[in-house]
Amino acid sequence: MRRSVFVVIGSALLAIAFVMSVEGHRGFALRAQDKTSTTEVRIDNFSFGPAALTVGVGTTVTWINRDDIPHTVVSTDDPKTFKSKVLDTDEKFSFTFTKAGTFPYFCSIHPKMTGKVIVQ
Amino acid sequence: MSGKKKDEIIYDHNNDGIDRRGFLKCMAWAGTGAFCVIQGGVLKSYALSRMPEMNPKDTMGELSFVQISDSHMGFNKPANPDVAATLKVAVDKINALPTAPEFMLHTGDISHLSKPEEFDTVDQILKGARPKDVFYVPGEHDVLNDDGKQFLERYGKASKGTGWYSFDKKGVHFIGLVNVMNLKAGGLGTLGHEQLEWMEDDVKHLKSSTPIVVFAHIPLWSVYPEWGWGTEDSAQALAYLKNFGSVTVLNGHIHQTLQKVEGNVTFHTAASTAFPQPQPGKADSPGPMKVPAEQLRSVLGITDVHYVQGQHALAVVDSTLN
Which of A6, A14, A31, B165 could disulfide-link to B159, CB 3.0 to 4.6 Å? Predict the structure, then answer.
């Protein structure tokens, strides 16, 4: 009786561990996919989307201005890691991230607009 | 056009836009400014469009000038596909005034993308105005890509720092400030230490009875910080003016007329000659507001300011393009 209780509990734990591992793999797979596929940041309605983007080292990120007002993409560090010219509607700016780290940036015309790129 | 009061500002627009024909129709109405007259120490401001209704005697004073703002030359999106035409309407209204204003103030965003041809177009259009002197301060759209170098070469040869300066006209002291340079992530407009020091020194020698008019692009009061509609260190600038009996602050940037009186200071923002923006917090973002054709002229404006000696407050009243 006692043994069967242990077996049941053990099986349950195994099942939970299995589910967790599958979920973990799935989560990992999703993150890996994000890293490679989402490299575009859309500027629209006075905001960056996604506001936080995670990419792998060596990824080129492209910002595209879909707003009807011009914007810029400027890193907040000094000296600037990246700084776009002003982007009018539908204009793009790209930057290749060669180092790991977190890179906050903003629109220098509308400084309330902020975003960051996390390079892993 | 539709039985609405001529100077009524309509914000209740629908968001489904209008067709090109509608926009072309509406652009004919757009492009306004404000007529300012100083009467006995009191500054009064009227939308240029209201001027024809006014008794000319009521709009006479020791000094009058016109404020225009946010021409955004180069903007060509549906909110107003022809900003040159609407600026010309403003000039026509200025030229139709019974008394020619002494000069014009342009409170920034002359251009949309800081392109030389955009500045050239505005210069050309404003040459058609009866007042020949135009005093400028830059908007953030005028200092793109080159930290304001071009702006300074064109308009700021006699200015200090990034383009600030002061001058006197008929006993009124005018101060043009720059609050669009070196903006910091997450922040608002900024005047900066150097400019503030200059300003403190600039007003030190003035009598407290001197009427002061301060003009800058981004509002020097906290209109709506969530959209960046304010200036980080404006309180310091205003502190230098606390002993003056009559202080008027004229701003642009937010493309609508708002007024506030706080102690000795009257704050005032001018409408754009190009396109309207939503009321603070009344939209997801401060992007251009698309209004039906028949309403566009009611949301663009010119400020006319009059100065009257002998009183201790300045008043600014706006009118629209109707």
Answer: B165
